[in-house]
Design goal:
six-stranded parallel sheet; 10 helices
Length: 218
């Protein structure tokens, strides 16, 4: 079908990919052309297949969804991005939208919302999970968190700068290039920062989450 909307699904959980595919393929006008289990695979498939829409899990191995989206923009690929996430954080949301994301769907409701979201984005409209919209409205009226120098006060100047770059979604290689240091040195700094902030054992993206949530005091 010439008007068929071609879609890529990228998520490291097979059951999530299966559920999304089943929902999408119930609509005769939508076609899943590929699946990816990590960010590097997703980027390669987007560059090769040029799907109209890519559903990207924000937290994936090798490259996270934000990094994939950044590369899509950098390479001027025409694929529109819909992010899949567990996070209702306003900082995560704004980072995703700043990268040109057209959709932001919570995984809790993704199977139910994905077709509506794809149709909206294919028509040139943004799509947000209803829960995200309600949550952002509530937070807009909530008191702003107070600045706490103790959150980052024990970091060195270099560590603080690295945290600022992490909050911008940059990878270790990109940070290394900007600071003129080897990316493995950046990885060592990240390990030390995680230890200082007691983030060890909280997952691969704990430092990114922390940087986004506290970037106003970095």
């Amino acid at each position: 079908m010439d008007d068929e909307i071609r879609i890529l699904i990228a998520d490291d959980h097979p059951l999530m990919r299966k559920g999304l595919r089943l929902s999408i393929e119930e609509d005769a006008g939508l076609k899943v052309v590929a699946e990816a289990s990590d960010g590097e695979m997703a980027l390669a498939l987007i560059a090769k297949l040029h799907p109209q829409i890519a559903l990207l899990d924000i937290e994936m191995p090798k490259l996270d969804g934000l990094s994939v989206a950044r590369e899509v923009v950098k390479r001027r690929l025409k694929t529109e991005i819909i992010f899949l996430t567990l996070h209702t954080s306003e900082d995560f949301f704004r980072s995703a939208m700043d990268l040109g994301g057209m959709g932001y769907i919570l995984k809790d409701s993704a199977v139910q919302e994905v077709v509506v979201g794809i149709r909206a984005v294919a028509a040139g409209r943004h799509y947000l999970s209803s829960a995200i919209t309600a949550d952002l409205l509530q937070r807009r009226d909530a008191p702003s968190p107070k600045t706490d120098q103790g959150l980052t006060g024990n970091l060195t100047a270099t560590e603080r700068r690295i945290m600022q770059l992490i909050a911008k979604g940059k990878t270790s290689k990109e940070i290394g290039a900007e600071l003129s240091i080897h990316y493995r040195t950046v990885e060592n700094h990240r390990t030390n920062i995680s230890r200082k902030l007691a983030l060890e054992g909280e997952g691969a993206n704990a430092l990114l989450r922390y940087a986004l949530q506290n970037k106003s005091v970095l």
